[in-house]
Amino acid sequence: MEIIIASNNTIRLNFLMALLRDAGLSPVMLDQNIAATEGNIGMFPRRIAVAVHEAAQARRVLQEAGEA
Fold first, then answer.
1. Which of 7, 16, 43, 47 is 20 to 30 Å from the Cα of 62, by its Cα?
2. For the residues 31-48, what does the mean pLDDT come to?
């Protein structure tokens, strides 16, 4: 797995997950549990990761959407 983005903005992360899925990729969100445990105060950003062989395409999708 390769991390392609990290953020504390849950709305943006959910949008990016949908964007990547629509592009036919299989993203996973990491660190959801620690973020919930710390009360969502923003200390631990959540990360989106994709398989290594999908990383270049994922970055391209994010760049084309102006989210890179």
1. 43
2. 76
